[in-house]
Design goal:
Length: 282
């Protein structure tokens, strides 16, 4: 199984997907069952002989660069990010320590979410919201709607005019390998990897003098979002939601929504289903 330009993982070489890799969103591997490739439309293709528990263990070891201990913090959160930005979700038996998940053992399933770079997928958002000036945007969408891909492309487009800082907590937006982004995130874009979103936003505000900060999947980050607004820095962030109403409901116990100039919801790979606060056209 390969990506467009390099091997994804040698340990899953027995997977044979008939569709172009550019159309594949996820590869799901489960012990005792065939691998499943899910395309960008949500359709599933079963594409291998069943994986044994030993083969799952081999895949997991390769995902962790054969040093599982080095990825203990990520594993405790349920995922590991590969070089190049693809994220692998982990299923197994959770091990608790002091009331928190400390590790996941007996790995039974892996979900490889394949990162894609798609030029032009943010064009409609750019034209609706950013033709005249930078603005704070909250981008909603269900899983596999393309939020991360669109944010990445939006960073590239906006960096032609503004200083951008990406807060890449899970290394999916930039796909950085030892500090160098695998994706084109723009010529005027700085990337801060590995931090929690709130910490990263505050660090960027203190040290990078950004005009726009971009991050994926905000949650309880109200203090950092408010600080961006107070500093006059625009924030573009995503959140899981299928509509504007769901965004409002999700953040109803906070003031987060008030700090965004506009909002949009994706339904499929950059296709916009709903907006609020579009620029007025002359």
């Amino acid at each position: 199984m390969i990506t467009a330009n390099k091997p994804l993982l040698s340990s899953i070489s027995k997977i044979r997907v008939t569709k172009p890799i550019s159309e594949v969103a996820e590869i799901r591997i489960r012990a005792g069952r065939a691998a499943a490739a899910v395309d960008v439309r949500g359709e599933t293709e079963y594409c291998s002989e069943p994986f044994s528990a030993a083969e799952i263990a081999d895949v997991f070891a390769e995902i962790c660069r054969y040093s599982v201990y080095s990825f203990q913090n990520e594993i405790a959160q349920g995922f590991v990010t590969l070089d190049g930005g693809s994220r692998v979700g982990i299923c197994g038996t959770a091990v608790y320590k002091n009331g928190k998940i400390d590790f996941i053992k007996d790995i039974s399933g892996l979900n490889i979410r394949i990162a894609h770079e798609k030029r032009g997928c943010a064009d409609e958002l750019f034209e609706r919201f950013f033709l005249r000036e930078a603005r704070s945007l909250l981008l909603g969408g269900k899983p596999l709607s393309g939020k991360t891909t669109v944010l990445r492309e939006l960073a590239r487009r906006l960096s032609e005019r503004y200083r951008i800082t990406i807060i890449d907590s899970r290394n999916e937006l930039s796909g950085s390998v030892r500090g160098t982004p695998s994706f084109d995130v723009g010529k005027n874009t700085d990337v801060l990897c590995g931090t929690e979103k709130s910490d990263g936003i505050m660090m960027a505000l203190r040290t990078m003098s950004p005009e726009v900060i971009i991050c994926d999947e905000i949650a309880d980050d109200e203090g950092a979002v408010e600080r961006c607004a107070q500093c006059g820095v625009k924030l573009i962030a995503s959140a899981h939601a299928g509509s504007i109403a769901e965004l409002e409901e999700r953040f109803s116990g906070t003031r987060i929504m008030r700090y965004f100039d506009c909002a949009a919801v994706l339904k499929n790979r950059g296709e916009i289903s709903e907006t609020r606060g579009e620029e007025r056209r002359k």
